[in-house]
C-alpha cells in the first residue's frame, strides 16, 4: 500500500471511501490466492458481496495507513 500511496504522490486522499475499500479488498484477495491454493469463496468475495461492516473496515484500514504515511513524511 505504501507504494500505491507514494506512486499517487499522496493523491489517494482524493479517492472515495468506497474506492479505498475496494482497493484494499482486491489486495486482500490477491494475497489469499497467493497463499491458499483453493480458498473458501468467502475469502475471495467481491466487494459487492462483502457485508457492510467489512467494507467499512477495509476503508478504515486504508485511511489509517494513508494518514500514518502522511504523518511520516511531514
Written overview of the protein:
The protein has 74 residues and is mostly helical. It has three helices and no strands. Helix 2 crosses helix 3. It is globular and about 40 Å long. The two termini are 18 Å apart. The model has no long low-confidence stretch (mean pLDDT 92).
Approximate strand percentage:
under 5%
Task: Please tell me what the overall shape is.
Answer: globular
The counted number of beta strands is 0
- The Rg value, from CA coordinates, equals 13 Å
**DSSP helical segment count:** 3
Largest sheet: none
**Distance between the first and last residues' Cα:** 18 Å
* Helical fraction: 55-70%
User: Pairing-aware structural class of the strands and helices?
Assistant: mainly alpha
List the helices and strands in order: HHH
Poorly predicted residue ranges: none
Average pLDDT number: 92
Describe, in short, the structure shown.
The protein has 74 residues and is an all-alpha fold.
What's the structural blueprint in terms of helices and strands?
Blueprint: H1 2-7, H2 17-35, H3 52-72
Key descriptive features of the protein:
single chain, 74 residues, mainly alpha, 62% helix, 0% strand, globular
